[in-house]
TrEMBL record:
Homodimer. Probably interacts with PlsY. It comes from Paenibacillus oryzae. The gene is plsX. One of its GO terms (cellular component) is cytoplasm. PANTHER family: FATTY ACID/PHOSPHOLIPID SYNTHESIS PROTEIN PLSX, PHOSPHATE ACYLTRANSFERASE. This is Phosphate acyltransferase. GO terms for molecular function: phosphate:acyl-[acyl carrier protein] acyltransferase activity.
Length: 329
């Protein structure tokens, strides 16, 4: 399999993106990685030698994080992100990943890679951490701010296929994010979506509340991008506050420092569970190819793990499976 990596996208590009690609190349020698970006910036980072399964694909331009997404994608045809998307479209790569501008990546997916037949709105689908380490696949968490009930139905189907193909769950439980568990609660959007999901070919368990998500009361969480992004940012903020407060508490005295030393292994496990780097990236589901969005501040570990997740999705034939389920083939 062949995976294109936008080497110029992200806060730490190209250095840490290239490092992560090299780590992935060493871990999975059966996977060819295409580093897409400006050769003059990337080549010095490969001075120690290029593995046989890593290739450099030159792209002159870069889409910055503050650029207007659609305009940037249309104007910068030779940017690393657009070139990587073109490689997927032309079947020269099986997947692409980028830590760059999220909006631009969404535009690249729609305008370059192309939307899957039967899908109106692709969805950003990251994994949320849970107490049992199994995680919850949540979609949409920011690709589309507005949604129709039919979009949430498609999210549920795509999420179910993803968890079956990538995580091996035979009957993933689908929950609809709402302000209460009662069927008649919520906005007009969630009420209409509830009715559609009851008739859908998924294991729909009804409405779920945000406070219960981290205890994995469902395997697939469905929501509109506006609500989902607020949920995600709230969780990130809460996690940051908790770890900051723990650090202050354990550094208060010699006694608390001793307690910290005893608790250190469990605290490290907790931090690892909440760390986005461990999850790699989030797929944009609903496109004609596999497109993975990495966190903007991704380091080498995050890039390596994103490659690993992309490999599993490709091995499970995720894209063709979603298409078959959506289009009834």
């Amino acid at each position: 399999m062949r995976i294109a990596i936008d080497a110029m996208g992200g806060d730490h590009a190209p250095e840490l993106i290239v490092q992560g690609a090299l780590q992935a190349a060493a871990e999975w020698p059966d996977t060819e990685l295409l580093l897409v970006g400006n050769a003059s910036a990337i080549e010095p980072l490969l001075a120690g030698g290029i593995p046989s399964n890593v290739k450099l694909h030159h792209a002159e331009d870069v889409i910055a994080g503050d650029e207007e997404p659609v305009k940037a994608v249309r104007r910068k045809k030779d940017s690393s992100m657009v070139v990587a998307g073109t490689l997927v479209k032309e079947k020269q790569a099986d997947a692409m990943l980028s830590a760059g501008n999220t909006g631009a990546l969404m535009a690249t997916g729609l305008l370059v890679v192309g939307r899957m037949s039967g899908i109106e709105r692709p969805a950003l689908a990251p994994m949320l951490p849970t107490q049992d380490d199994m995680g919850v696949l949540a979609l949409d968490l920011g690709a589309n701010m507005d949604a129709k009930p039919e979009h949430l139905l498609q999210y549920a189907i795509m999420g179910s296929v993803y968890r079956a193909k990538v995580h091996g769950l035979s009957q993933p439980r689908v929950g609809l994010l709402n302000v209460g568990t009662e069927a008649k609660k919520g906005s007009e959007l969630t009420k209409a979506a509830f009715e559609l999901l009851e008739q859908a070919p998924v294991n729909f368990i009804g409405n779920v509340e945000a406070r219960d998500v981290l205890s994995r009361n469902c395997d697939v969480l469905v929501c509109d991008g506006f609500s989902g992004n607020i949920l995600l940012k709230s969780m990130e903020g809460a996690a940051g506050m908790i770890f900051s407060s723990l650090k202050d508490a354990f550094g208060h005295s010699l006694l608390t420092k001793a307690a910290a030393a005893i608790m250190l292994p469990r605290l490290r496990h907790l931090k690892k569970k909440m760390d986005y780097k461990e999850h790699g990236g989030a797929p944009l589901l609903g496109l004609n190819g596999l497109v993975v969005k990495c966190h903007g501040s991704s380091d080498a570990l995050a890039v390596k793990n994103a490659v690993g997740k992309a490999r599993i999705a490709l091995q499970g034939e995720l894209i063709s499976s979603i298409s078959a389920e959506i289009n009834g083939k």
